[in-house]
Amino acid sequence: VFSAEERSEIEKYIHENPYATLEDIRRHLGKDCSLVTVHNALKSLGYEKKRQRNAMWRRRREPDTSGCGRT
């Protein structure tokens, strides 16, 4: 669903806005997709966010380079 350019833009946005919500990221990209799709893209890039208010995105592993966007 996300091109390599969009995936790169997601990483840049997360780096600049570590407290961004899935909705913030989707809005920034201007995509008409579900929040689950955004979450799966972040997961494939190696990011996770703890389930707490005001949690920040952190990279826990190397990104998925297969390009499929799923893990």
* Secondary structure tally: strands: 2
Largest sheet: 2 strands, antiparallel
The radius of gyration over CA amounts to 11 Å
Sheet-strand content, in percent, reads 5-15%
Helical fraction equals: 40-55%
Low-confidence stretches: none
The coarse overall form would be globular
Provide an overview of this structure.
The protein is mainly α and 71 residues long. Helix content is 44%, strand content 6%. Strands 1-2 form a two-stranded antiparallel sheet. The longest helix is centred in the N-terminal third of the chain and has 13 residues, at 4-16. The mean pLDDT is 83.
Defining key terms:
6% strand; 71 residues; 2 strands; mainly alpha
Task: Summarize the entry for a quick read.
It contains three helices and two strands. It has helices at residues 4-16, 22-29, 35-44, and strands at 47-48, 58-59.
Blueprint (SSEs and pairs):
Elements: H1 4-16, H2 22-29, H3 35-44, E1 47-48, E2 58-59
Antiparallel strand pairs: 1-2
Helix pairs in contact: 2-3
